[in-house]
Amino acid sequence: MISKIRQIFTVVIALLLVTFPPVLLLYDDMQLGAEPIDPWTQVAKKPTPTPHSQLFKAPTFTDGPAVTRACLECHTDSAREVMETSHWSWLGAEVVVPGHDKPMRIGKRNLINNFCISVESNWPKCTVCHAGFGWKDDTFDFTNQELVDCLVCHDQSGGYTKAGSGLPAEGVDLLAAAKSVGRPTRDNCGWCHFNGGGGNAVKHGDLDGSLAKPVERIDVHMGRNNFQCIDCHRTRKHDISGRMISVSVMDTIGVQCTNCHSRAPHLSDRLNAHYRSVACQSCHVPVVAKKEATKIAWDWSTAGKDIQGADPHRYLKIKGSFLYARNLVPEYYWFNGNSARYIKGDRIDPQQTTHINYPLGSIKDPGAKIWPFKVHRAKQPYDIKYRYLLIPKTVGKGGYWSEFDWYKAVELARPYTGLEFSGKLGFAETEMFWVLSHMVSPKERALQCNDCHGETGRMNWKDLGYEGDPAFEGGRFQRRWVTLNSGVDR
Hints:
Number of helices: 16
Helix content: 10-25%
Mean pLDDT: 90
Strand content: 5-15%
Structural class: alpha+beta
Number of strands: 13
Distance between the termini: 22 Å
């Protein structure tokens, strides 16, 4: 009975907070009551495209670099600009990673993940998604401008695809692709980002093929307003804004909702007050993987078995066992924009879950907010003696996907990874965190008060550092509820 009364009371209080702001006053140092700005005034104007259909003199192009040479005749600085970005180098700027003393450059190029594990020794498969041609091994020439792939971002013919080592797929009409070029669309970005981790919807949770032509239920910006990726991920000299904590530890180039929306976007001061502690995405991305299920677990230790008729979304001999989820409810953590990161060679405790990355922040950190995450959990190989995660060669001759021999696969990768191998291999549990910022729901589908507060709410307030539900206990900035009539603190 008491539980039922408490639940009803929570709902009533929540409704009062939203519907009748004058009834209760919130003491806080946040400036409330500001008029919301019109976000459309902040949206960048789209440039008028230049048709290229009549600009190419060649009757055909024999390979990708030939297209790039033609592009550079007019766009003389473009390749150089691309080569200064992480989309080309797969490395960020030098940074001191938490737990390490010296600055280092990290990125997809040299980090371990808990999906396909590592690019190192597996280049031909991984670099299908590189914005260049021919990255087949560690001798790739990052200084050669002709190896920049202009078409992967600018093709509008719909017929351009890439194959091993990032080369154009056999049979692609390169001239037709070159004549079609224009401003990048979701299809261009999605060709790689929708398929990260080895297939559609595998990696991110909030990025998959349903965003190519979404209805507004899937994403209100893309579905209702036909936003393209670069409308938010604004680009200057081919440097695309945005970052993922899977490969970056510092909050330096993030895309923010407040690039267009004000910091007090609601008519209700009560809702605006949440902005200090709750990321916009926590309410406006209530679920992800709305149409396509996303991978949430991957167990490499079960790979190598012949299981007839196995569902490929549950088991593959070359990769092991999986779990997928649709309409995935996020997990919530404090996040100040920075993150911890496992670096190749870091020692682990195999009895504990190793965080490949982890959002930094806490309830005591005034710069942190509660953010939504997809957490991908895995079991992957580690060296029992040296107690660090291992990198196997999976692709190509002698790789695990061919011979299903973990020991051989690790030895073949060792010259490239620099990791000594004791010959003793086990499997350790790991977690990897993915910030959720896409698949923004229409405001009518955003979370309501009782979705988070009350006994059936989705938030685990104690895990977040609160004494209890802040609707009852108060928030982290020492808020107090005061009734207008009595003046008694509650």
